[in-house]
Amino acid sequence: MKRLFFWLGAVLTIALAVYFVRFAVNAIEQYRLGPFMTPDLMLATIAAALLYALCIPISGWAWHVLLRAMGIHWRPGSLAAIMGVTQLAKYMPGNVGQHISRTALALAKGIPVGAYAGSVLIETVLAMIAGLFVGAVFSLISPVPVSSLIVEYRFALSLMAGALMLFALVLPCFFRAFKKLVRDKPFGGKWQLLEMTSPCYGAFGPALAGYCVNFLVIGLGLWLISVAVDAHITADYFYLTAVFALSWLMGYLTPGAPAGLGVREGVMALMLSGVGQNDAVLIVIAAMRVATIAGDGLVFIVAALYMRLKTLVSNS
């Protein structure tokens, strides 16, 4: 039976990799970056892809922190590998493939259902809080003139970030109430699979910091691309980081968009209007999408090799 699951997993992995390569090629052809791909822009795009790929080990560490607070001890590298090898599934239509594949792989590896459900729910909330917080704060501290879209909604963004922070503080209370509801009548233990584990408060701060660092790292890659494209783009590192954080959040919340494709670019175009020539802004946005696709591909390869090497070592 284990051999059957191994071969099924191998076939699915190869099929997903082929689908991703086809998706990546089509996306790159659609953006038509070839004529604008100068040596500086190529180097900046590669650097942005490497920086983007760093988000998986950082997120794996944050997941490790949450699980450890629940009494589940997994190495950050193993958790990052689970996230990395299922990352390509987010490019499938529906924008839920990575969640389904990650759930299946994590449970197959032995992570308890309750701990997995609780940690991923908290991860999702904290990641959204991080995106909104970084977007609101960095747009406030950016010294350059910013998009009227941000100026108009800056106060609302700050309020939403504060509200999500408060929600994060009461999450443990929600978990306790939910567990009591599942155990009590009329349910009486019938829904034990829904019983989620909650980490202690001490894990929330480090995990949230990790998700914030993700946006800071990606923002650096976007800034490198903007400098390579046009030195006259007035958006600085802080504003570009805010732009990516908020556009990522919109893409993440949009159902059906594979990896936020189209949604993220549309929001970025709106927020970057006026910070440079339109053609330069569009090249920056397209190069950043190419960098994120390349970063996901790199993460998948490294994670797959890590898991394979770990299997070989354990069997030797």
Show the helix and strand layout.
Elements: H1 2-31, H2 39-53, H3 55-68, H4 76-85, H5 97-109, H6 113-141, H7 148-183, H8 204-229, H9 237-253, H10 263-271, H11 278-315
Helix pairs in contact: 1-11, 2-8, 2-11, 3-4, 3-6, 3-8, 4-5, 4-11, 6-7, 6-8, 6-9, 8-9, 8-11, 9-10
Based on CA inertia axes, which overall geometry fits? globular
Largest sheet: none
CA(first)-CA(last) distance:
20 Å
- Radius of gyration, in angstroms, nearest whole number: 21 Å
Strand-pairing-aware structural class = mainly alpha
Which range best describes the helical content: under 10%, 10-25%, 25-40%, 40-55%, 55-70% or over 70%? over 70%
Question: How do the SSEs run, as a string of H and E?
Answer: HHHHHHHHHHH
Content of β-strand: under 5%
| Total of helices | 11
Number of strands: 0
Average pLDDT taken over every residue: 76
Low-confidence stretches: 187-194
